[in-house]
Amino acid sequence: MPLKYFKYQALLLLLFMVTAYGCSSSSPPQNLSKPESPPKVLIGAFYYLWYPGNWREGYINGFLRPPQLPALGEYDSTDLKTIEQQIAWSSQYGINFWAVSWWPGHPELDTILREKTLRARNIGDLKFCIFYETAGLGLVEDRIVFTPEKTQKMIADFKYLALTYFNHPSYLKVKGKPVVILYLTRTFSGNYPEAIALVRKNLKKMGIDLYLIADEIFWYVMRSVPLPPSTQPNLNRIKLFDAVTAYNMYDWAKPKQMGYGRDSTFLQEVHDIYLEYRSALGREVPLVPSIIPGYNDRGVRLSEKHPVIPRRFAPDAEEGSFFQRALKQTVLPFVDPENPMVLITSFNEWNEGTQVEPTVESPATSSDRSDSHREYSQGYAYQGYGKKYLSIIQNTFVAVTGRITDDKDGKSLAGVELKIYEKGILKARSSSDAHGYFNLFRLHLPLGSYELKVRPPGYGEATLPVTVEEDKTARISVRLKKE
């Protein structure tokens, strides 16, 4: 394994949390040299458009006693105020793109994305990409078998996506290429190499080079019939893509991975399989680590009796402790320094209990609406966690956060550029969102002392000392005075 990976892993673990406080004026940096631009840190979350319909399908939080509802209630995905609040939360806490679920054959979801999501007033604060649900092409007996008809359908879908979304100013691009995440590539069979090649060829004719991320990592992956599934990475298939990830490593058929993280093998085995894939891939195809905050689909699939991965690492641990441990053990060691992208499953997949979207705050309970009061919860405690999971994401990845406001009236200032220096050397930059919030990521700011400098047009300069330490994100308030 390349030595730089070990160095990077050690650095990330050192940077795991940060704290800083202070506000004063000082002389501006003397050396304004601009270093080579560091790679943009991309923290993404899978995002779903299927509400209110899927509330009726059932979700664990809705079956608890009392229910632990979303902070926005059982909302409608077409509601602009809801969308704008979800964008605001994501931007404020360090999620800077959504992987939006897009299903072949479901035009109603496409309409919501086009006519509602992308019309949010603050859509410029967030990037988005298409999460192409290939199961919609036809998943039969755990395989998507590519036929000429499926290939043509996929080509037509990608042409539509290119014309409709790829030129949107908020569409996510890596190295100038629009990103599409493909679900369940690990199940591809038949003539899928030709399908991927033809999709790329047809979009190339439109002047578009795709950046395809494959949902390829799992405990077993499919091979073409009649070959049985394999536990080894399918390198021939992987090489068709630009990066690989794992949508969700939960597998109900692995009982040792279920239950509290302290007692289960889940986190260690996810770490080990990521290590296996990264070693097999070398530097040819980047790995994008992904993780869940827990899993419980009994609200939507109770009859299948799937076991639960609770959100607490141990019975006496706090809410969110499994997620904190998972990020440290299975994500941070695998962030690619040249392609620093992370995926969270999910922002709002409530039916499978993987959401990080805020809830109404309420005390912990393990009681549910079943006759035994534990059929849905399996006896595990759930808490109305508020913004807890968003804070965990921010503390994990963000070194410095804050808000820029007008000193006189307290009004948020949007689009203000910030620069942070170390001994006069520019280390990182950011800009404030529609509500004045900004984030500077740990990857760019090792432990130490810095100066944050702000001077938007019409305002005086503000220079603030920032100390990046362990354990907390540095939180500062920047109040600017008009000239």
Characterize the overall form: globular
CATH architecture of the largest domain: Alpha-Beta Barrel
Separate helix tally: 11
Helix content: 10-25%
Reading off the top of the CATH hierarchy, the class of the largest domain is best stated as: Alpha Beta
Which class best fits the helix and strand makeup? Answer: alpha/beta
Strand percent estimate: 15-25%
Count of the domains: 2
How many strand units?
21
- Per CATH, the superfamily of the largest domain is Glycosidases
Keywords:
11 helices, 483 residues, alpha/beta, 21% strand, Immunoglobulin-like, four-stranded antiparallel sheet, ten-stranded mixed sheet, TIM Barrel, disordered N terminus
Brief characterization of the structure:
The protein is an alpha/beta fold.
Q: What can you tell me about this protein's structure?
A:
The chain folds into 2 domains: about 5-30 and about 400-480, Carboxypeptidase-like, regulatory domain (Immunoglobulin-like, Sandwich), CATH 2.60.40; about 40-395, Glycosidases (TIM Barrel). Helices cover about 25% and strands about 20% of the residues. It is built from 11 helices and 21 strands. Strands 1, 2, 3, 5, 6, 8, 9, 10, 11 and 12 form a 10-stranded mixed β-sheet that branches. A hairpin with a 2-residue loop joins strand 16 (about 415-420) and strand 17 (about 425-430). Helix 5 packs parallel to helix 6 (about 190-205) and helix 10 packs parallel to helix 11. The longest helix has 17 residues, at about 150-165.
